[in-house]
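Worked example 3 (structure in, sequence out).
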């Protein structure tokens, strides 16, 4: 009976050693190709909900993409005026982008009446998609980066941005760049 326990423990240790070896032998992120083997510099659009989202949630991504020569554009869907500090927060966004080496002409903070900062504010996904699409065309964007479906922190505005970006119009527009497996009824 003891030999079964020893064999199980040895198997677990062996599995751990193999996993560790694979992790240590895999290329570091700095060695990875920029976008799936394509080494062209891209126009990347980061879509955020409020000023400070770019720094709080996306600074490492921005720094990595900048280090690879990609042109980062930021579209901030609101000025973050929940506490009446919208103009101040907008200026903070521009200052943060200066620090992150993103030219100010590649940064836009919107002040749309239907996209106001707040936990109880529901943002229209179609409107978000429309505004993002305008900037995709304006800046000739190749790649969009935004929040995950949880909005990173769970903030409703972050989640709405995610769903707005995945809204059908943008999905159709970018479907030519990405192969998506879909199940179809026959």
């Amino acid at each position: 009976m003891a030999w079964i326990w020893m064999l199980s423990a040895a198997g677990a240790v062996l599995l751990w050693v193999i996993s560790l070896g694979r992790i240590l032998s895999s290329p570091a992120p700095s060695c990875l190709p920029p976008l799936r083997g394509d080494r062209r510099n891209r126009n990347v659009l980061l879509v955020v909900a409020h000023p400070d989202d770019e720094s709080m949630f996306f600074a490492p991504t921005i720094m990595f993409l900048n280090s690879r020569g990609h042109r980062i554009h930021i579209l901030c869907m609101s000025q973050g005026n929940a506490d009446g500090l919208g103009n101040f927060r907008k200026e903070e966004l521009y200052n943060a982008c200066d620090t992150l080496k993103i030219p100010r002409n590649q940064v836009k903070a919107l002040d749309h009446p239907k996209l106001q900062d707040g936990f109880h504010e529901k943002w229209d996904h179609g409107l978000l998609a429309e505004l993002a699409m305008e900037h995709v065309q304006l800046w000739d964007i190749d790649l969009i980066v935004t929040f995950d479906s949880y909005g990173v922190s769970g903030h409703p505005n972050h989640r709405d941005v995610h769903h707005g970006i995945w809204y059908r119009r943008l999905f159709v527009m970018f479907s030519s760049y990405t192969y998506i497996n879909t199940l179809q009824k026959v």
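Notes: The radius of gyration is 21 Å. The longest strand covers residues 43-48.
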